[in-house]
Amino acid sequence: MLDVGTGTGSVAIAAVRAGWQVDAFDAEQSMIDFAMRRTDAAGIRFITATLPRLPYPDGAFDAVAANFAINHVDHPREGLAELRRVLRPSGHLAATVWPWGAPSATAVLWREIQDETGAYPPPGNRLPAGSDFDRSEAGLAGVLEECGFVDVRARRIEFEWRVDADALWSGVEAGIALIGYAYRAADAATRVAMRAAYDARTPALTGADGLLHFPQAAVLASGTKAALAEASVDR
What we know:
This protein is an alpha/beta fold. Helix content is 40%, strand content 25%. It has one domain: Vaccinia Virus protein VP39 (Rossmann fold, 3-Layer(aba) Sandwich).
């Protein structure tokens, strides 16, 4: 299995526990370093790489997991086409994105920190015109179908996300999402203020297990790379 945009390595580690042999990559070396330091990450092959050009041969993987990754690449369709390339025929892709609409619990947290510190992302960090897609069940399913996946299905899921406070902040420092862009663009004093604002809010979000708890929703879609016979018919 290939874990796309592995971040802290959680999906990759869960896949290993389920019996998969796993490769994982992320665009940020700091995230790869973090994931590799985890004691439960033994056996996972981590590399730094960026969509839409991956250093894997055609058909290298039985499955690909893109967990909140497609929405972070400049050209989602090119990225999905590359993931389809590295899948074997009849291999499966699963992808998640944050849905548009009411702000998520994490989005509310980041907005409060930005409003308090004045740290906003610089202009020009949105996807290029024509590259974005609607963050809904139909939107994510549609972009998978555009990129040649078959048997596409999509649904909205609701769950409680539990995450270590330092692990979540490491994503901000790595420049992940709009809050990460804002952090990277900020001066040293503003970065310190952002962390202080974060630390002031995390106790109220921390459960008995010591982790932050966020009620969340996501769009989950899956698709299959056509078998060789089907692909020949399509051509």
